[in-house]
């Protein structure tokens, strides 16, 4: 069993960009996630620790793994006391990521560090389990397994972006937010290729109550293609 430990904390997490570790177009743990450093005085393999303090109390978050890098459980401790046991998604394995699978983005922009665990890696993208730290109870609340988020703390935005084929002309993107304790898409944008019609289609959906509703669908000529979603200031039209 490989044990990784981390103390999670009350502190603004800064501007996290999960895409940075996988390069252009990919998602990964947050760019500004605290670095994990070996604890001193321990045998091999050494547990690893970061120090953050949620709700003015030091917590340790310890990952328990089995063969293949699969995380069976996450123990949240305060000193020697077990506060909570978190259960990741089934077969949450990210071989090769090591400690970098864990990050502490601020998902609700309240200045308190939340918790993210990368559970799956694929070409150009990844998925993660997310937990929000509830300051009232001092416990983590599971928000589900989602495509790994890009967290813009300054802009208070949670987004995803995946670039597909056709030289990046095919892509999907979403803006997400917390509603009634759940992490849900608020707006999605997609640029897709229709083989039958031999055209690109740009589709926008927005949340209306409990569901997403399509608000626009446009057929695009090559000169009108978008390089990315409307909320990205760097996503100018493609040539």
Describe the 3D structure.
With about 240 residues, the chain is an all-beta fold. The chain has two domains: about 5-150, Lipocalin (Beta Barrel); about 165-239, no CATH class. Helices cover about 0% and strands about 45% of the residues. It has no helices and 16 strands. The chain has a six-stranded antiparallel beta sheet, with no helix packed on it. Strand 15 (about 200-210) and strand 16 (about 210-220) form a beta hairpin. The protein is elongated, with a radius of gyration of 19 Å. The termini are far apart. The model is unreliable at about 1-50 (pLDDT under 50).
Q: Trace the largest sheet across and list its strands.
A: 11-12-13-14-15-16
Structural class category = mainly beta
CATH topology of the largest domain: Lipocalin
Counting DSSP E segments of at least 2 residues, the number of strands comes to 16
Distance between the termini: 51 Å
Radius of gyration: 19 Å
How many domains comprise the coordinates? 2
Name the CATH class of the largest domain: Mainly Beta
Number of helices: 0
Shape: elongated
Instruction: Give the low-pLDDT segments.
Output: 1-51
Average pLDDT figure: 75
Order of helices and strands: EEEEEEEEEEEEEEEE
């Amino acid at each position: 069993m490989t044990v990784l430990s981390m103390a999670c904390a009350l502190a603004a997490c800064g501007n996290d960009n999960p895409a940075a570790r996988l390069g252009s177009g990919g998602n990964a743990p947050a760019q500004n996630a605290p670095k994990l450093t070996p604890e001193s005085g321990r045998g091999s393999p050494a547990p690893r620790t970061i120090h953050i303090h949620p709700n003015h109390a030091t917590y340790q978050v310890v990952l328990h793994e089995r063969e293949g890098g699969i995380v069976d459980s996450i123990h949240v401790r305060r000193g020697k006391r077990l506060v909570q046991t978190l259960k990741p998604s089934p077969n949450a394995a990210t071989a090769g990521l090591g400690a970098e699978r864990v990050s502490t983005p601020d998902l609700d922009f309240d200045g308190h560090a939340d918790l993210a665990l990368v559970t799956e890696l694929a070409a150009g993208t990844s998925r993660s389990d997310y937990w929000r730290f509830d300051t009232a109870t001092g416990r983590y609340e599971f928000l589900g397994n989602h495509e790994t988020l890009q967290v813009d703390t300054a802009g208070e935005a949670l987004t995803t972006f995946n670039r597909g084929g056709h030289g990046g002309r095919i892509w999907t993107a979403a803006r997400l937010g917390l509603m009634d304790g759940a992490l849900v898409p608020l707006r999605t944008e997609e640029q897709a290729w229709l083989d039958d019609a031999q055209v690109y289609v740009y589709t926008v959906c927005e949340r209306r109550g409990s569901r997403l509703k399509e608000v626009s669908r446009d057929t695009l000529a090559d000169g009108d293609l978008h390089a990315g979603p409307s909320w990205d200031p760097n996503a100018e039209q493609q040539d």
